[in-house]
Design a protein that fits this description.
The complex is a heterodimer of chains A (508) and B (158). Helices cover 73% and strands 1% of the residues of chain A. Chain A is an all-alpha fold and 508 residues long. Chain A has one domain. A two-stranded antiparallel ribbon of chain A has the order 1-2. Chain B is 77% helix and 0% strand. Chain B is flat. Classes of the chains: A mainly alpha (508), B mainly alpha (158).
């Protein structure tokens, strides 16, 4: 407990520095704007702005605070386009449209927006509190991890990714493998042997992380926007003066608490982020609510559940990233890559070696959550106006921002072509129902995975049984099997229940 | 069907990756049990197994992209390619002016509004990024040439 308090003191002294405070607010504001834009989610926003934030030459803690502000600001802003336009910014906001948009159509847009803002705030704050309590303990434990345990941890990360993300397990696995393969390009750090460089000097040091991120997320998103381009303006529902009532909050309070817990723990699972969390929270709430049949027609509880869950998951996803160096979601994978660019190795030592970064980030999340609630309640009208920006302005702007960001880092025009090519590749992957988060996770974890495997085998002199020699590894492998088999078993059981004579779904 | 084609193309790339992993990558000397080639070898086996599974049981049958959309996408890619190629020779302001106007007009903006948009983003973007934020953006060979001329003239005068 003492460690937590001193840590938080360090963190707040960093985060309350006027410049960093400004960055928190700027990040939250920019993030909400990006999240509110139809079609752009947190991951695209962070991907497009990451190179620019890097190019500004801030210290690592300031840059990370800015990026994290954009991240949960966008997680916050996503609900605006979901509720008013019925267009989710990304997968985690899909569940918000189910009840949020019907509420707005019933003329309760203001009520829906303010209720979801409060639900998001509670979910986000709950997650930060748990994060600051758990993270140091977990980090102390993780210091004892051997290379073999790390290999097991990676296997667990990819297993939970494969079973919980995306529709097709094989495609998710292949996506992660593509990411790992991309990470092998460049000079091998252990022996100095060049791999897959084909003599091209631009990729001797490996494909730059920023290029992969901006290509796969920024440019692929741009092509998707062009593909799905709707002629004319999207019709935004009018914003009215209704506001959340105490009765709503009283009705939703347990929903919010339950969903925050679900969201946080799903967020902590390596590899699974806000989209899984909001879906699970919505499903759970629908099942246990006595008026579950009205879900989908504008039930406030159906709106509060996914909103508190996805913000809690955004905080939960920070836990494995800060303590183990294994990102909990696609967006935290990008943040992790950002830390690596500043030569900071995220992992168990982060809390002792760079306390100002780890705790500064955590403290900035407390401030950011409060700031988001304050800017979101009165200023929601401004953000709502962003929704009507025609797409023919938005799309070129994304490309221009991406180009500025990539060019300012090394000033190499070859990189601009590379992000375009990766964007085309990413667009095809998306069209084939691959999700892109596994690819970026594989890319970020590639060298960590390989080096730990090689280190483990060096320790044992080539004996592969070292991988299962420790109880920690065995527990992690058992969890991996469990996380893959459990959904299959549950689905089979659900099918058997549905086939049974008792039909509980009469109300629908 | 589309799934199979895509998986087939990926399989060819992966096979090339595999061949390189098993034949070309080799450390001149090493003491560790796993060399630089082992990890790519493991990955290539996993990737090939996944690809064979997708080839065996594909699930996406069509892309669902109309001819018109393909045309729009191809045009966007060409514009992006041209933008990347012209970025340094023309400099940020001119290339962004051209790219912003062209893409905006292609996506349905009126010519006048597209021109205003292109002009505003290029000039405002340059001022914001270079003057205010101190980022590095290309001025363009034309501007550099003019600069040289101007400084050359000054030197000539003095």
């Amino acid at each position: 407990m003492d460690a937590v308090l001193t840590g938080l003191a360090t963190g707040f002294s960093v985060a309350l520095d006027p410049f960093n405070l400004f960055l928190v607010l700027a990040g939250c504001f920019a993030g909400t704007l990006i999240g509110a834009l139809p079609g752009l989610g947190p991951i695209n926003g962070v991907a497009i702005l990451l190179p620019i934030a890097y190019g500004l030459g801030f210290g690592p803690e300031s840059a990370l605070i800015l990026l994290a502000g954009i991240y949960y600001g966008a997680e916050y802003g996503g609900r605006i386009s979901s509720i008013l336009l019925n267009v989710p910014g990304d997968a985690s906001a899909v569940m918000t449209t189910l009840d949020g948009n019907p509420m707005a159509r019933n003329g309760e847009a203001g009520r829906a927006l303010s209720l979801s803002a409060i639900a998001s705030f509670v979910g986000g704050t709950f997650a930060v509190v748990l994060l600051s309590l758990f993270a140091p303990t977990l980090a102390t434990f993780a210091v004892t991890f051997s290379p073999a345990d790390y290999v097991a941890l990676m296997v667990f990360a990819f297993a939970s990714l494969a079973s919980l993300v995306g529709k097709n397990v094989v495609k998710t696995l292949l996506g992660a493998t593509i990411g790992l393969m991309l990470a092998t390009i460049g000079i091998d750090a252990n022996t100095g042997v060049p791999r897959y460089t084909f003599g091209i000097p631009d990729i001797l040091a490996g494909i730059d992380f920023l290029i992969v991120v901006v290509g796969l997320f920024g440019m692929a998103e741009l092509l998707t926007l062009v593909e799905q381009q709707v002629s004319g303006k999207l019709k935004s529902l009018p914003l009215d003066n209704s506001f959340v009532r105490m009765a709503d909050l009283a009705k939703c309070k347990w929903t919010i608490v339950r969903s925050s817990i679900i969201g946080f723990f799903i967020g902590v699972l390596p590899g699974t982020g806000a989209s899984v969390a909001s879906a699970v929270a919505y499903g759970t709430e629908k099942r246990i609510a006595d008026d579950g049949s009205t879900f989908g027609t504008g039930n406030p509880r159906g709106l509060a559940a996914p909103e508190s869950a996805n913000n809690a998951a955004a905080g939960g996803a920070m836990v494995p990233m800060l303590t183990l160096g294994i990102p909990g979601s696609g967006t935290t994978a990008i943040l992790l890559g950002a830390l690596l660019m500043f030569n900071i190795q995220p992992g168990p030592m982060l809390f002792s070696q760079n306390p100002e970064v780890a705790w500064g980030l955590i403290a900035s999340m407390y401030i950011g959550n409060v700031a988001l609630l304050i800017i979101n309640l009165p200023l929601v009208g401004i953000f709502a106006r962003m929704l009507t920006i025609p797409q023919h302005y938005l799309t070129p702007l994304i490309a221009i921002l991406a180009f500025i960001g990539i060019y300012t880092i090394v000033g190499n025009p070859f990189d601009l072509l590379l992000i375009t090519l990766l964007g085309i590749f990413g667009w095809f992957l998306r069209k084939m129902d691959f999700s892109l988060a596994p690819v970026i996770l594989g890319f970020v974890l590639g060298s960590l995975f390989e080096n730990n495997l090689r280190r483990a085998l060096s320790i044992s002199g080539g004996d592969w049984t070292i991988l299962v020699a420790d109880y920690k590894s065995i527990v992690l492998y058992a969890l991996s099997v469990l996380v893959v088999l459990a959904p299959i078993w549950l689905a089979r059981r659900a099918r058997r229940m549905a086939a049974g004579p008792v039909s509980s779904s009469k109300g629908i | 069907m589309v799934d199979r084609i895509f998986a087939g193309v990926l399989l060819i790339v992966t096979l090339a990756y595999t061949v390189i992993a098993f034949t070309a990558i080799r450390a001149p000397f090493q003491y560790d049990p796993l060399g630089p080639e082992s990890w790519p070898q493991i990955l290539s086996v996993v990737a090939i197994l996944c690809l064979l599974f997708i080839l065996w049981k594909p699930d996406a049958s069509e892309l669902g992209v109309s001819k018109q959309t393909w045309f729009r996408l191809a045009a966007t890619v060409i514009l992006l390619g041209a933008y990347a190629e012209l970025y340094e020779p023309l400099g940020f302001i001119l290339s962004t002016l051209l790219f912003g106007t062209a893409l905006c007009a292609m996506l349905g903006g009126s010519i006048l509004k597209s021109l205003i948009f292109g002009f505003a983003t290029s000039v405002a973007g340059f001022l914001l990024c270079v003057t205010l934020l101190g980022l590095n953006l290309p001025e363009g060979e034309l501007v550099e040439y003019l600069h040289k001329q101007a400084s050359g003239l000054e030197e000539g005068v003095s």
